[in-house]
Amino acid sequence: MVSAAIAIGLLWSTAMTATVDVQPELLRSALRYRQALTFLKNHPQQQQLMVMALTSAETRVTDPSALATAYTQAGLVAASLLRSDTSYVWDGSQWTGSSRTTYGYDAGNHQTSQVYQTFTGSEWINYFQTLSTYDGNGRLSTDTMEQWQSNAWVYQSVSTYTYDGSGNLSQIVSQDWSGSQWTNGTIVTFTYTGGRVATALTEMWSSGNWVNWGLSTYTYDVSGHLTQLLGQTWQSDAWVNQSLTTSTYNGSGDETESVDQIWQSDAWVNMTKHDYAYDGSHQQILDVTSTWFTVMWMAITNDTMKYAGGQMTEKVTVNVLANSVSRTQYSYDTDGNRVLALTEDWDMIGSQWTNAARDVWVYSAAVVSCCVGMRGNVNQAGIIDISDLTGLISYLTGAGYVLPCPEAANVNGAGIVDLSDLTGLISYLTGAGYIPPNCP
């Protein structure tokens, strides 16, 4: 049971960030979920753990770079587009390629391709790619995943996304390629309460029928913060508890604690805990990860973060068990996009920082076309307040950051700007009045 809990925890950290959960992440989590299921399709027990990985909560974007990375993929107009993300490792004398992801877009700046490669010997080798299509409203319609085999791309899986009348993502149907045709794999159905995700039901295709597999249930406080995420699996015609994540917030709405538990011997057993601290601008400056040892929490890692101009510039990680210290320093371009992350390890013997890993992001200019737009209410702290029909958008920050501009036809007489993203969750933006942006 412990190994299962560890696996769930790893998948959880990959699929969801509890403190900064951007609504488009719902779809990106779904994509990672499908990718993992595809690679684990011959390992049903590991596949079952993936049920707990698909999650969503309220939307909170806390820096301009998040707009560039998340909302560009959501189909909104952006100032720049991510073209590649390359990872390197230090071999002791030079940087060696590790992995690379390149991105392609259509004329509307929707991300249409994502090619993942690994570095072998002296060249980049294709590994898998994801091809995306969109409906007439700019919402994600399909994701097709292909793997590189014998110098050709071979189908692996396809996911089809549908939306309800309010534009909420309602269902994801995923199929696997049998070699000659698509066969049903999983279906995830979302329900909503008050505009927020209430449940995510996962069913598996078995013997010609959809059968229950996993259920995620979301609980929120009166302010709309996600306070509990309950994960259950279907066993012997009943839902059985598997995992529970409980979050606590301060009066400013910042998450201060997150506790992960597993169901064992008819009781919840502590596994991991995160304690967070923030500065006056609600930027997370501390993340202490602890593991439960019989009767008490023991700190395992301690992350401290520094910021400049609203952007993280450094993160230092102290690993108590490994008795090691590492730091990652971040650099940005003039548009606020993260372009470099350099990770170094502390050499205790030599008393110096040594290279460990490096990530490089490359961007290109996006196609921007708008002549009528509206800026939200910007207060002295540089926070742009936004409201939407679902209540999922809490705020966007970044002093002076220009909001994506909707087309003129979407501005009605009531002073409401209608927008749509690939989840369909952003319905309108409200503000104090029209402020036409500078259009190219």
TrEMBL record:
Keywords: Signal. Gene3D superfamilies: 2.40.128.720, Dockerin domain. InterPro entries: Dockerin_dom_sf. Residues 1-17 form the signal peptide. GO terms for biological process: polysaccharide catabolic process. The keyword Signal applies. This is Dockerin domain-containing protein. It comes from candidate division GN15 bacterium.
